[in-house]
Write the structure tokens for this entry.
Amino acid sequence: MKHVEFELNKEFRDRFQQALDARDSEFIRSTLEEVNPADITALLYEFNGEESKYVLDILPIEVRSKIINDLDSDTRKNFLTNYSAAEITEVVNQLDSDDAADILNELPIKTSEEIIAGLDPDLKSQVIDLLRYDENVAGGLMAKELIKARADWNVVQCVEEIRKQAENVSKFYTVYVVDDADRLLGKVSLQKLILTDPRTTVKEILDDDVVSVETYLEDREVAEIMSKYDLESVPVVNVHGQLVGRITIDDVVDVITEQAEEDRQLMSGITEDVEEDDSVWRNTRARLPWLLIGILGGLISARFMGFFEREIAQITAIAFFVPLIQATGGNVGIQTSSLVVQSLVNPGFVDEGLWKRLLKVFSVALLNGFFLGLIVFGVNWLVFGNNPLNLVVSLALFFVVVFASFIGTITPIVLNRFGFNPALASGPFITTTNDLLGLGVYFLTIHLLL
Amino acid sequence: MKHVEFELNKEFRDRFQQALDARDSEFIRSTLEEVNPADITALLYEFNGEESKYVLDILPIEVRSKIINDLDSDTRKNFLTNYSAAEITEVVNQLDSDDAADILNELPIKTSEEIIAGLDPDLKSQVIDLLRYDENVAGGLMAKELIKARADWNVVQCVEEIRKQAENVSKFYTVYVVDDADRLLGKVSLQKLILTDPRTTVKEILDDDVVSVETYLEDREVAEIMSKYDLESVPVVNVHGQLVGRITIDDVVDVITEQAEEDRQLMSGITEDVEEDDSVWRNTRARLPWLLIGILGGLISARFMGFFEREIAQITAIAFFVPLIQATGGNVGIQTSSLVVQSLVNPGFVDEGLWKRLLKVFSVALLNGFFLGLIVFGVNWLVFGNNPLNLVVSLALFFVVVFASFIGTITPIVLNRFGFNPALASGPFITTTNDLLGLGVYFLTIHLLL
């Protein structure tokens, strides 16, 4: 067995860079000959676009296509600007229909039309079919390549057909069985085909309990179904129940990863799908909306504190504890909403119901509020001595913890019910709300007790 | 084809609950007979532990085992307290070795010993072997069930062996080829076995470019390798290169999901792996540490503002803008660090290097700071008229945006370099730091300009 983990040590990189600078194609070719394309991709992340293209042009077209296909969408979009339409056509011709459609979707419409015109006839019709679907539905995830069989065939005929079709299908573990109108009847695993007597008909070994998805199903739902039923691939049918493609688990892993990334962005107050290496202007624009909401909250806070100008002028220390109150409200709100979001995604075996859930949140808040209030009271007592403000601050802190927990629980539940992504609730939204709430509670306590 | 999507409408749930209350086992059995176990699992989330056990006891043991295996770890742990060791043994005997080991790991040591003693001999020795491994390494993820073949066999012998071994292996797509010391030589896909002449030897169709992982490799790394090389299963070898198990993609999907959850918890300031339905005390404890750090930050803020008591007493409005400054610093810090964390996970094709990255962050910060400062200046000018404090607030805001961006960039990079999870930097850590930083910048500006 060959050693497959490819070491990207500094020495090697330097040597490789030298060869690149010298345009030593012989060295590059022989070095990379035995290397897994996925490792070459990692290596290319070290070089600039022009150098990477030079390396790829040396490699065989299958390897080159695999590497270009492996790049993430944004990187590839930039990188392919170095390529002519004819060069891209050559690459796309090597790919499965779903990967080909993904790349074509990223290119300017003019370039992609030019490339489609140059594709092999089979791939061309498959790709044209796939481009009709939105990227975020099953139709946009699926590949057209699959192995179809008829129920009245026997195993020998089935294997014959696999031999014919397998040329175009790189990896498969299942044969789908359709009727003469192409409607999905069931599936037969390769495992079963191998172990069955060759004269058996497909009908006899057919598994008709097959989970399929319709073309318009959202990618998130496809991911949920595949992980719920532990499927490594799922057939896609159109509204007439006809088999039109299949989705494999590796595409769904990408969906899951992107989804987690999207949630993280929502939690961090970034509005568009932006990456650090996007342009300065795009980065700025993606951040401004939530920052403005934060600013608005800050200005309302300022106006609100203005109402208590007299109190603050008399006892300046009142102002000192505003950061403490607000920071705690924000932290509690984010913690709570984050746990609620998590339990909305994975409901427990015994769903507790809203009231029981609120009761529990309330208990946790009482405990946390009590501890924090006590600690702050103790510290303030040591610093300021016996001052009536100590009690006010600690009491206000206690109430802020309780209210912030409540808002942190309610917000994601409400967002979820109205069809928004509840992760939105764990971001600047909850922080801004709780900043204002905390300020209100604090000054109300001051008003009542001081 | 049977309709597989099982509708959980209210009417059905009510009818089912009635049958449950009446302990109408005949209705339950006949209703669930044709239903996919994964759908029954979803249904059970509606009922309490005792009712769920009643339903499961009616179902055939294979279905019951599949459902119990599908439950998430915490739910299962609670649920299995309703079961005797003998009942659990019956369930575990139906499972693959990796799933069996997972369940045994969750049980009290006394119960699990009792169960192991009652397992079928083959499963027993496999499970005992698996229990040696930590849950978070390849050895803890792998299953022992796999199909092994020898290189000098021909395809017919290979299929014969598959027939023998397949009894214990539920799903497989690959046959692993080993030498007489059980060392991994390569693999043959079922696809290839089907399409090859039966007299061919395994050696001739063997793919020796096989990616394997060692037992001690961390689960995160296994997930990375499988998604990098697009593998649906990966063989696991021990330090001697001997084949000891295989990991399938569905287990890795779970690892990816858990990892995203862990990152989210870190970002929300929750220290332990806690779920909403854990006990009140555990929930409280998981939140306290970060809340205390926030409180500490708040107390330091209070102390710091104390130094400016005279200024605040003179111009109370100084205090009004503290929330604005701090909220913006916090939001900018989280946005920046979140993007940096993202790009640490998925590096771009051309890694920009620290200085170029900082330069860009700096440009975005300048732009955002400029816009926000201008807006706040405008609003304040409308509200307070021409006041020197307006300029101070806007200037301080500008600098806070710039500094917070800097800290948001540096913190995750430093954490990452020292081997911590950089997602830690997007949580209360950065908020607390930036609250203090913001306050410092604000009062320094006041000190210099007012």
User: Anything to note?
Assistant: Chain B is about 65% helix and 5% strand. Residues 206 and 315 of chain B are 82 Å apart (CA to CA).
